[in-house]
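--- STAGE predict ---
source: upstream dedup step, 1 unique chain passed
mode: sequence only
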Amino acid sequence: MRIDKFLSNMGIASRTESSKAARQGGILVNGVAVKGADVHIDPDKDEVIFCGRKIEYRKYTYILMNKPDGVVSATEDGKDKTVIDLLPEELQKLNLFPCGRLDKHTLGLVMLTDNGDLAHRLLSPKHHVKKKYFFESKFPLTDEEIKYLEAGATLEDGYITKPAEIELCADKKSGYITLVEGKYHQIKRMLESVNNKITYLERVTFGPLVLDESLARGEWRFLTKNEIEQLETYK
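--- STAGE serialize ---
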């Protein structure tokens, strides 16, 4: 792989920026400055230093984000800020996208990646990837309503949801709900089916991933090696 392509794929520099850095002696391969950005490297074996910074090769990029309120889970939007806009400029250059969507006013865990095959598998209905949310409702939920929602609620369009798991808090107006699907505004519509209303919603897990409580709203981090392995082997 050419160095300029490698640096571009890692979101470090454009090809023009790479050529300029190479001419100025700013790119080292295994400790030796290269004269041009067209030099070929083995990204799995060669050490690349760009302007004093060691660049680690990633075939794919995986990011865990704590989505804030009012931000859209999309790659671009003509009106609202997106999760991509919350990333630094070098990562915005990559072809990252959210793996699944959170509603504009739903908070919490979003994974961003450029691994289309993995995202497709995780989002495929046949894999039933579990997603857990913390919720607050306008009115307390009764035991009968909990059983109804867990068994499969009938939405306003006639769709019957798949069975869910609900852990209710002592106040009966908050708790956790776990889904294996992700229909449009599903939890909101499920509560509406029992004449209730969601007042707060936050995703806390997605498959094996757990929301990192050290991340403030709008903050992000790369997935750890262990988290990536869990995602790749998740069934």
